[in-house]
Design goal:
alpha/beta; 26 helices
Length: 702
């Protein structure tokens, strides 16, 4: 029986496409051919288990928003003005203009002058990644996608060896859950469901390690509010206590890791007093956590995206991932760790991404996170290649989400740059475009989804028709390919045909079978998921001594720092934008609960819940700067400054500041948001954006 047939009349299944590890199974109320009503969690999926976040539950508000784009637009006025600067045109005329703009740039400087740019506005593999097929078929500049997970991936791979870990459903069997560098109450609500089960069944404790008291930290039995970028020091001191107090599993270390006398001596020298000075935590806090962690092997470590936001994030995550190896937690049900599950799906994406064409058309790679420097002509980015003179953008809003947003704005403002944006709303990036194409939403097209936070491969069919005038990413890519003379079999296939062919090429059942079953559980068996049959490293052992040099970047050495200076063993690495006398604060730009990157910032429900951008500042610091709640504060660094109201908040250290974001630039008093202050520097060893690694000054605004 098809899965949808098991639902009440007027309901259909789907999958949430947004940039979140949960990738929730959904049940959607279908009101008519084009309209939806309620959205709830899919009860057929044991990870989603009927629970979804409030913003997706309100999806009808976003999908049927009155400002949603439904007609192609050509800019006839100034860049950045908004809707008044555009006129409506036909789809044929719009696609012709885009093809002409890309072709002109190619004719002047070669195909590398064109940069297709995308990211995670949808996480569906067909609609998100088809732009790669066009890129490869034409030989356009490639994209090194670093903005989200590159730093944390590097740290996890350094120790574990592959991007996979213990099934998150095992959290329910745990006696201790450590959420380190994440805030699932806001960003991955299903984790909290499984933690609640562990609390109820096992009396499990929850520890949260985060620079400020998040919604998740408020529910914790222990919150360690360390200074940003000091996670390695905490991890090393915890290991010191585990060794000192006989809480390490030496048999496990001998059989499953590269532990030796040198490693032991290294940790013996890194005691809680050393770490306390670096982290701002007390010796007692560090020792209490270490003893709690060492008291049970059923300790589940869920590491989060905070690790991927600091220059030393890879080293920090590697150090944290050492903990379950020291206690042997990997060996038991409910124990171990998880960063993500990208390696379990074994998908052959040659057809979707045009990987066969890529082999025939080599091209330079440009770092996604350095959008601003690339467009403003930084020679370290462009190398020997031409300037970027044409952009085709899908699934992202770089003028807001990228570092050094001042340079992003300057680059998009260039008169010689052609920009086409395929979008659902007239975002700030779209407002800078020459042509804007209206895009479908996830309930209006077919796609398939993998998850980082669970193990299911899922498919979603369109459940309603799109507004007349909107087209899917796949349709637009194929239409442009025809106009540009790009050839590849994938351009002649429907989305469903691409899904089916990809699954079969990957050794999975076909699309119809996977869809009817509600998804394919790709979870590995216990021994494999817990690495009892060996870690995916040379020699099969967890590595305390990582080979950082092995994680090469396609970006040149003038930009990417590589492995130079990285610690040979887990250690506090000072390669951060440290506080200085002229910039005494460290700024964290953490996710706001009701937004997801810049998605949902247009909906009234999310706007009402968030209110306005605010600077969270410790009350002691407010008093020292003579600031009261709501007063305007100017914060800045060498990249610029911005004004934001202050909110006294005692859930962080006095030299730490937080702005929950990503707010549109226009939500800030001077029309520029928090990423103005974030550097586009690349993290080591292979790149990655550094959104939470920013030193700033702060003073009362004039």
């Amino acid at each position: 029986m098809p899965l949808d047939a098991k639902l009440p009349d007027g309901w259909a299944t789907s999958v949430c496409p947004h940039d979140c590890p949960s990738t929730c199974a959904l049940e959607v109320e279908v009101l008519d051919e084009r309209r939806i009503g309620k959205v709830r969690g899919g009860r057929h999926n044991p990870y989603t288990a009927g629970v979804i976040c409030a913003k997706v539950a309100r999806y009808a508000e976003r999908m049927h928003h009155p400002e949603r784009l439904t007609r192609p637009l050509r800019r006839v006025g100034e860049k950045g003005v908004g809707r008044a600067a555009f006129e409506e045109i036909s789809w044929d005329a719009a696609l012709d203009l885009v093809a002409e703009g890309l072709t002109r740039a190619e004719q002047r400087h070669g195909p590398e002058a064109v940069w297709p740019y995308f990211y995670a506005g949808t996480m569906g593999h067909v609609q998100r990644d088809g732009i790669e097929r066009l890129r490869h078929a034409k030989g356009y500049s490639r994209q090194w996608s670093t903005i989200c997970v590159t730093l944390a991936d590097s740290g996890w791979l350094a120790g574990v060896g592959a991007k996979k870990g213990v099934d998150a459903r095992e959290i329910a069997k745990s006696e201790l859950v450590v959420v380190w560098g994440g805030n699932p109450v806001s960003t991955q609500v299903n984790v909290m469901t499984h933690i609640a089960r562990a609390k109820k069944a096992n009396g499990a404790k929850l520890v949260v390690i985060d620079p400020y008291r998040t919604g998740t930290a408020e529910q914790a039995d222990l919150h360690l509010a360390l200074k940003p970028g000091t996670d390695s020091a905490l991890a090393c001191a915890v290991i010191h206590v585990l060794l000192r107090e006989g809480l390490a599993d030496r048999d496990y270390l001998a059989r499953h890791s590269d532990w030796n006398e040198q490693v032991e001596a290294h940790f013996v020298a890194r005691d809680p007093a050393w770490a306390a000075e670096i982290t701002g935590l007390t010796v007692a806090e560090i020792e209490d956590f270490a003893r709690l962690y060492g008291s049970t092997k059923k300790s589940y470590l869920r590491v989060g995206y905070g690790f991927s936001r600091s220059r030393n994030g890879a080293a920090n995550l590697h150090a944290a991932s050492c903990l379950p190896a020291v206690t042997g937690a990997w060996a038991v049900e409910g124990g171990g760790a998880l960063w993500g599950n990208g390696a379990i799906y074994n998908l052959d994406k040659t057809l979707i991404e045009g990987l066969d064409a890529a082999r025939d058309r080599p091209a330079r790679s440009l770092d996604q996170s350095r959008f601003g420097p690339v467009l403003t002509g930084d020679p370290r980015d462009l190398g020997a290649g031409p300037p970027v003179e044409a952009l085709f953008i899908q699934n992202t809003n770089p003028i807001v989400v990228c570092p050094e947003s001042g340079k992003c704005r300057d680059g998009l403002a260039r008169d010689d740059l052609f920009v086409a944006v395929h979008e659902q709303f007239l975002t700030e990036t779209a407002a800078m475009a020459d042509v804007v194409l209206p895009a479908t939403m996830f309930l209006e097209h077919d796609d398939y989804y993998t998850a980082s936070g669970h193990t299911f491969l899922q498919i979603a069919k369109a459940v309603v028709a799109p507004p007349e005038g909107s087209r899917s990413n796949h349709e637009v890519i194929c239409a442009l390919a025809e106009r540009l003379g790009a050839e590849h079999p994938g351009f002649g296939m429907t989305a469903w045909e691409l899904i089916d062919a990809t699954f079969r090429a990957s050794g999975h059942p076909g699309a119809d079978e996977v869809y009817a079953s509600g998804g394919l559980d790709c979870a590995e068996d216990f021994e494999t998921a817990h690495f009892l049959d060996g870690f995916p490293q040379p020699g099969g052992r967890f590595r305390f001594a990582p080979d950082w040099q092995a994680q090469a970047s396609p970006i040149g050495p003038d930009l990417c720092p590589g492995a130079a200076g990285m610690p040979a063993l887990p250690d506090h690495w000072t390669a951060i934008d440290a506080a200085q006398p002229d910039k005494p604060f460290r700024l964290v730009a953490a996710p706001a609960r009701s937004y997801l990157n810049t998605s949902f910032t247009e909906t009234q429900g999310s706007q009402a819940r968030e209110g306005r951008p605010e600077l969270l500042m410790h009350p002691e610091t407010c008093n020292r700067l003579s600031l009261t709640e709501g007063e305007r504060v100017r914060i800045g660094n060498d990249l610029g400054s911005l004004v934001v109201p202050v909110r006294p908040f005692d859930g962080l250290q006095p030299d730490v500041l937080v702005i929950e974001s990503i707010w549109p630039n226009g939500a800030f008093e001077e029309g520029i948001g928090v990423n103005l202050l974030v550097s586009a520097d690349m993290g080591a060893p292979r790149g990655g954006a550094v959104f939470h690694d920013t030193a700033v000054w702060a003073r009362k605004a004039d």
